[in-house]
Design a protein that fits this description.
The chain has ten helices and twelve strands. The protein is of the alpha+beta class. It is globular and about 65 Å long. The structure holds fe (ii) ion. The site of fe (ii) ion has 4 residues, from helix 6.
């Protein structure tokens, strides 16, 4: 519940998000926090510092009079992709930063935390709305990185032959139960964000789409179904694959979802809780768009478009929409009609990435609480498999 004083409520929200990042980093020792196992995955220490830089750069420097940056060199190290915010360290080389160490990054976080609280308490009433607007973006930004902390450390831990657990008590999401399809009727459906509350700019403007009659799976594709796909030669049958996808199968030798290993005829997978036998009932995870697409073709079905997914979720037609795995859609990540990126560096947040990526909908078991909604658009390149990504099917009445 929000209290009557909006400043106190925002301070509490800020504290909660910042604490959640630290809670996620807590099981990781300093060595864990430095490793970058591939260019797309960033070290935990970098995530902790980058999310802090975001508040410093976009909130404190412009809005807190007299604010002293913690270390002027950090902007170069911890700016991710904001060209308008200045030059930055190369993304694939983030894992080479042994300095600042985790202790100094913790001090950076504390410095910025205190300054943000000072700003919140001291901002004049007529400037508060703009401060809160940027603070809110910063909180949602940090929540996105909270999920990345887990996906990226899982990729790092997967490079270790000992298959260490991030957290041996990390719970698996409950397996999907529904196996039938819901009917999504023909009609004009409103998609995109409208109403109160927060959304990213890529969820706007809300607009109408005409959808054909479709069937959308109530549940998610399971490991049992994926094992059948493997056994039927799914990864060895080029006719099932897009040309680009087959090139990835061949180049990377794909034969199963990410983090799967076959040992003496049994399948195991690395999870945040360590190496586990593949549970046939669980939703398949760590498959890329190319695999999702090939699987759908093998079953003789489709993937939903993002508009179909959103309309079905908004209508309560589907289970497991949130909290298990992100679900690949057939939709390319494009601007909605009338979308315009904002001016300035924060306008670089989403708009410039609207090419060569596919939209995922829902959320995963690693998505922080309060960071999921029906209009949310996640996006990754079609070959990406290190996120918690799975499959929901759709098809069309004959
Ligand atoms: Fe970021």
């Amino acid at each position: 519940m929000r209290s009557h004083d909006p400043r106190a409520a925002w301070r509490d929200a800020f504290r909660a998000v910042r604490a959640e990042t630290e809670r996620r980093a807590a099981p990781l020792n300093p060595e864990d926090q430095v490793v970058q196992s591939m260019p797309d995955a960033s070290p935990t220490k970098w995530h902790r510092a980058h999310t802090t830089w975001f508040f410093e750069q976009f909130l404190l420097v412009p809005h807190l009079p007299g604010y002293q940056v913690f270390d002027a060199s950090f902007a170069y190290l911890f700016n991710s992709y904001y060209v308008a915010a200045g030059p930055r360290h190369a993304r694939p080389r983030r894992g080479l930063l042994t300095r600042p160490d985790v202790t100094e990054v913790a001090a950076f976080r504390a410095h910025v935390d205190q300054a943000v609280e000072r700003l919140l308490a001291g901002t004049a009433q007529d400037k508060l709305a703009e401060v809160l607007r940027i603070l809110e973006i910063g909180l949602h930004h940090e929540q996105q990185h909270q999920e990345l902390i887990l996906t990226d450390i899982l990729h790092a831990l997967a490079q270790n032959p000992l298959a260490p657990a991030y957290d041996a008590t990390w719970p698996s999401p409950p397996p999907p139960t529904a196996t039938d399809f819901a009917e999504l009727p023909r009609g004009v459906h409103r998609i995109g964000w409208s109403g109160e509350g927060y959304c990213f700019d890529n969820e706007c403007p809300a607009h109408d789409v005409l959808l054909p009659p479709a069937h959308i799976a109530r549940g998610l594709v399971t490991n049992a179904q994926w094992l059948e796909f493997i056994a039927d030669g799914g990864y060895r049958t080029p006719a099932l694959w897009l040309s680009d996808g087959w090139a990835v199968v061949e180049a990377e030798g794909l034969s199963a979802p990410g983090y799967w290993q076959e040992r003496d005829g049994a399948w195991f997978m690395l999870t945040l809780a360590g190496r586990k036998p593949v549970d046939p009932a669980a939703a398949v995870c760590h498959v890329g768009y190319y695999e999702a697409d090939a699987f759908a073709r093998w079953v003789g079905k489709d993937l939903p478009t993002e508009a179909q997914w959103e309309a079905a979720a908004a209508a309560g037609l589907i289970d497991d929409a949130f909290g298990t795995v992100w679900q690949w859609t057939r939709s390319a990540y494009l601007p909605y009609p009338g979308y315009r990126a904002a001016e300035g560096a924060l306008g670089e947040y989403n708009g410039k990435f609207m090419i060569n990526q596919m939209v995922l909908r829902g959320s995963s078991h690693a998505t922080p609480p309060g960071h999921a909604r029906a209009s949310y658009r996640n996006f990754f390149p079609p070959s990406a498999r290190w996120q918690f990504t799975g499959v929901r099917l759709a098809d069309y009445p004959v």
